[in-house]
Structures are given as structure tokens and as C-alpha cells.
Here is the input.
Amino acid sequence: MTDPTPTPGIHHVTCVAGDPQRNLDFWAETLGLRVVKRSVNQDDPETYHFFFADAEGTPGTSITFFPWLNLSAGTVGTGQVSRTAFRVPSGSLDFWEERFDDHGVEYDDRIERFGEAALPFRDPDGLPVELVEVDIPDDDPTVPWTAFIPESAAIRGFHSVTLWLTDPGPTEELLRTMGFEEQGSEEPPGDAPGDKRTRFSAVGPVGTHVDVVPTVESGQQGHGTVHHVAFRTPTDEDQASMRRAVQSAGLRPTGQIDRHWFRSVYFREFGGVLFELATSGPGYTSDEPLAELGERLVLPGEFGDRRREIEAALPNVTIPRPETADAD
Ligand code: ZN
Here is the structure.
């Protein structure tokens, strides 16, 4: 069998949130990401699906949320993405600590991992997040969104995800199949004391790393946990070759599913984490002009005919805008 086209890295991360307005306020205003799409969960159209990304919705920058009010708080544990990290420009963590102080966001002490400075904190639902300082090259594919945060500190897409796994071996082999290379291991500071963290890296430059940490702590899906992580398979051909490789490895990927802004294949990997393979196209600008991303509720496909009914069932929310925001 021929090797699949290696993935360049993470495409998006999808999480479970509680209150939709609180989720919007934190991710769009406090962290300053752009709302690039406001839609509904395709399997549950009475629930929003929010997409936050860089200024242009570049693949490798979007974190998405299902605000499921009827779920309760989750617990991070084995078989989950335990931590999601974003890239920020070198030297910007002072800015972020000050901003978090101003906005009442609790954060932990900075830590150093693989030679990089990271600032760990949680979102209002308890989702573990980190900002990691990196040198952003001039030709970086991400485009900073500067409505709330200056370019010198703006988030520039994903840095990494961390996977908590009972038995990391089979997942590590899968990551190699997908095109990640093992970079080495580090002892704490990690997520669980005493545990070793092993880093796998794709070519990137965005969403480059997957860290693997062995743990037996059990978790529960709910507010403040990651639902799945998607990896980039830029073209349909790339995705088909990766799907075949995943199937040959003994996993059971779905067929291709149309997610309107990308096409997706899902499978649960050996350690229990839900993985997705997502194409680069058609992209978030396929149904809204770049200047108007996120302005209106987008109801793709068959949901468009039920707009009145769907809108009536959704809670009212307001997209944070700089002119209405509290002064810092
Ligand atoms: Zn997804």
C-alpha cells in the first residue's frame, strides 16, 4: 500500500460549552478570535455551532463549540484531548497576563515545554487552554484578527493538542502513519505529575504538534471538554489516501460527510479520542463574503427551509463588537 499524503497538522478542534453568550464573549472578546461562522449543530439544529478563527478562517485556526445547555460539566480524562494550545507571538505573554487580570480570567504560572513558554488557563466552562509563544514568520499563513487584540499579541492558530491515553503505543503508531514524526519526550511540568510527555510534529506551520501523555484518570464528556480534533487532509485525494491508511491500521472510518465548509471523515482512534480528517475547501468564505463572516446565522442545506422555526428555538445571542465592549 502506498503511504498516505502526510497531514500538515490540526484543521480544527471542536468542544462542548455551556452558556452560548458567555462562550461568545470569552472567545471573541477576551481572546479576540474572529467569529467566522454562526450556525447550528447539523445533528441537533436547536443547538448553536460557533466557529472562532483567525481573520480569514485559515485552516488550522478554528476552534468550534456546541453550547449544549442540557449537559453538565465534564471532566478531562483518558481518551480525550486534554489541552488545546494556540500560537501567540514571542514576547506577548505579558500582554496576555495583564489582559487576563483585567478580565478576571484565572491562569496558572507560565511553564516551559520543549523550549517554548506556555501560559495555561481555562475558559469559562473549564476547558484547559494554553497560549504558547512562537516566532511568527513574515510569510505565516494565518492572518491576525485585531478587533480586540493588537497584532503583536493576536492568536495565530493552533500550536498543539495534548492527548491523554491509557496505552499510548497504538495511537503513537497511528500518528506516525498520519505523517507525524516523534520529536522526543519531556518529564513534567506536564498535565499529570510524573507523566512523560512525548511530542509528535507534522510539517505545519500551524497546528503542528500532538503531545501524548499516558494517564489512567477517567473523564466524562460535558462542558469544558473537547469533542473531537480534526486533522488537515487538504484535498479529497489526500483524505481518501489517509482514510485507506487508517482503515488498513484496523480502525473504522466513516464515509465522507459534507460539513458545508469542509468535507469530513471521522473515526475513533485506538485510545478512544474522536479524530476527524477535514479538507481545506470549500472554506468559511464559500457562503458569506470575507467582510461579513459570522454576521448572520447560516443554515446550510435543508435547514435553510426551516429558518423561522430554528431561529425561534435558539437562545438570543449578541456578537461582541469593539465599539460596544467594556473599556479595558
Ligand atoms: Zn469537526
In short: The chain has one domain: 10-313.
